[in-house]
Amino acid sequence: MPNSKLVASRNLVWLALIGHINGCEPQRPPVERDVMRKLLTGFVLPMGDLSIVSRPSDCRTDGQTSLALPLGLFDAFLNANDEQSNDFDLSEFGDRVTTASGHPRRLYLRTRKPVVSLSRAGMTMNDALVCVEVYAQEERAFFVFLRREESTWRLAGEVVSWEEPEEEDLTEDPEDGY
Fold this sequence. Notes:
The chain is of the alpha+beta class. It contains four helices and six strands, in the order H-H-E-H-H-E-E-E-E-E. The protein has one domain (28-162): Nuclear Transport Factor 2, Chain: A (Roll). Strands 1, 2, 3, 4, 5 and 6 form a six-stranded mixed sheet that branches. The longest helix has 20 residues, at 2-21.
């Protein structure tokens, strides 16, 4: 019996050594800057000529959602965007980033150039959730879901959080007899 314990101990040491050699180190915690960099370079900047701002947002959910979002990730998102949250520093992303005070809608009305507002990222170990709000002729807000594979963040999907209601067409239709 004592030999079996020695063999088992030796096997555990070898497994630990092999895991270390193969790079099986514990995954480092997520970094919000990495998430925002992927979101900007892979999603927002390719949208074209627009202004980009950062401000905490609940994505017009009032803290509740019926969307198909993982509850723990949604809670992390709300915590990252609470009343004490600050804007995320996007200055490294160039001259399209605006540090305007006030509401993004005012910036749009002043410049007549679409404005994209990015919230803070809610993160779990391998998932991130960011609200993207668009201010232009029409407004909308949606969540962008990112997933980390090893050390690389990838865009995994988006879901609409809020859209302006469509205006009802009140023009007369001759077929209706009006």
